[in-house]
Amino acid sequence: MGATADERPRIAIEQVQHVHLVAVAGVAMAALAGMLKQRGFRVTGSDEAVYPPMSTVLARLGIAVMEGYRAENLLPRPDLVVIGNKVSRDNAEVRAVLSAGLPYVSLPEALAELFIAGKQSLVVAGTHGKTTSTAMLGCVLEQAGLDPSVVVGGESLDFHGNFKLGGGPHFVIEGDEYDTAFFDKGPKFLHYRPAAAILTAVEFDHADIYRDLDAVKASFRQLVALLPPGAPLVTAAAFPHAIELARAATQARVLTFGVVSVGRDGADDAVARADWLGTDLRDGEQGLTLSVTRQGSRVGDLRLQVPGAMNAANALGVYALAHELGLAHDVIAAGLARFSGVARRQERVGEFGGVTVIDDFAHHPTAVAGTLAALRGRYPRRRLWGVFEPRSNTSRRRIFQRDYVAALAAADRVIVGGVFEKQTDAVAAEELFSPEQLVADLAARGVAARSLAASEAIAAVIAAEAQPGDVVVLMSNGSFGGLRAKLQAALQAT
Asked: Is 353 left (phi over 0), alpha (psi -120 to 50) or beta?
């Protein structure tokens, strides 16, 4: 274990000039690096195997990334080191930090002390949809002229990056349930001092750090308990575990929201009883529209550029919290209509040889199903390819082996990539996800599916077999072996 907070070396913030970030290319770490630089600090960082979009973000910010973790990266000696949760105590650079007696903090601590303090913290948390919802809420407040600060777990297409430092009273932040650092195994969001929150969903995920659903729920229970009495907690009615936690573990004022077509696991009745309800969804290549009802009374309509019922639900949760902040319908609707999306969240890469390519971060079966449903609604008469990489620490395991069958069966063609190998999270053979079994189960349902380990092979097959009008969605929480660029090149060459 690392030193406790009281035992760690300390430095007064006013004395800090040079901040070094270990594992700087994480999405939130890159945001922190940019914010620090904007505030006038000297910023350096180290990481390994950096790939877009974060490599591009850091380059645009003018922050050079030292490749690999070494003691030499700490020269000249920084005043403060921020240690990301990607690295362990045994990391060579971390060992050097400890040996040198350098002051160090976690990313959430740095955000809380340097940027959130003094602001009204609006935390967006949940198993699904939190990145999009965070960016949406930031866009709504920005369009309302409130000049918020925002930290998003992805690259916002509206803010042209994953953070924004504003002069207004609000700090909108994505609340990640993943652990904080090697010296703090609690979830990141416990540091974010929520004054209000959106809880988008609660399901099992992050199998590498959570033993079961109860452990996941325990973390979210701690978050909602931090809310002050009477603070708004906007909660997705379609997810029973989220409703359970919201109602049982907080003094906050719970407001529920749901979209009629998003009811899951017998939750349709709960959705229908939600305080805020989205109905009459109509989607197509010109956009998505829905009607908003509050406790049975129609409020008005919303128009979104982003597709699908899942995004409609994200928008409705944002709408409910924005209303609590005092914004009028027309103001909220204008902000949501302006929202362009987040990179790698149902991002339309382009059309190549008549084939539309979509890049998406989906890796949990609920998110995979939601993405495919959204694209089916947006492109109803086109052939849909679902290309999935089992890369996350949960999807690499058999936990959701059967769930992926139901999720991917919504596609017309399916390609499953190889299981991503990860030295820091070795999985026993008997627990490993099986692409071959998934392909066999999909074939039994009449879905044309195959397993291809190499991204080059996947790109070649799609380029050879895709037809003009097809829609291909890449689903992975990582680089997928550079498949996005390889597929684009292969399609352009045909």
From this structure: left
- CA distances in angstroms from 50 to 60, 69, 227, listed in the order given: 14, 13, 36
The answer to the question of residue 254 being in a domain is yes
CATH number, residue 101: 3.40.50.720
Q: Cα separation of 167 and 468, whole Å?
A: 48
Of the candidates 491, 169, 142, the residue with the CA atom closest to the CA atom of residue 332: 142
Q: What is the pLDDT of residues 445-490, one digit of tens each?
A: 999 999 999 999 999 999 999 999 999 999 999 889 999 999 999 9
* 105-115 mean pLDDT: 96
Handedness of CA 239, 155, 469, 312 (dihedral sign): positive
Q: How far apart are CA 80 and CA 292, in angstroms?
A: 48
Q: CATH code at 431?
A: 3.90.190.20
Residue-wise pLDDT tens digits, 280-296 = 999 888 899 999 999 88
Q: What is the 3-state secondary structure (H, E, C) of 78-97?
A: CCEEEECCCCCCCCHHHHHH
For every residue of 221-280, DSSP letters joined together read HHHHHTSPTT-EEEEETT-HHHHHHHHHS-SSEEEEEEEGGG--TT-HHHHHT-SEEEEE
Q: Residue 356 in contact with residue 347, Cβ under 8 Å?
A: no
SS3 401: helix
What is the pLDDT at residue 284?
A: 82
What interhelical angle do 27-38 and 54-61 show, nearest 10? 10
Position 74 in a domain: yes
Residues in the chain, how many?
494
Q: Which of 309, 338, 367 is the last residue of a domain?
A: 338
Dmax (CA) for the chain in angstroms is 65
454: three-class secondary structure by DSSP: coil
Task: Give CA separation, 266 vs 213, 238, 311, in Å.
Answer: 18, 9, 20
Q: How many domains is the chain partitioned into structurally?
A: 3
CA angle, 182 then 184 then 187, to 5°: 110
Domain-ending residue, one of 72, 105, 138: 105
Residues 284 and 417 in one domain: no
What element of type H or E holds 166?
none
* In a domain? residue 111: no
Q: Which of 229, 208, 227, 206 is nearest to 216 (CA)?
A: 206
Q: With beta carbons less than 8 A apart as the criterion, state whether 163 and 148 touch.
A: no
Cis amide bond preceding 380, omega within 30? no
Give DSSP secondary structure letters for 346-380: SEEEEEETTEEEEEE---SHHHHHHHHHHHHHHST
Q: Is residue 68 part of a domain?
A: yes
Say if residue 43 is in the same domain as residue 125.
Answer: no
- Residue range of the domain that includes 57: 13-105
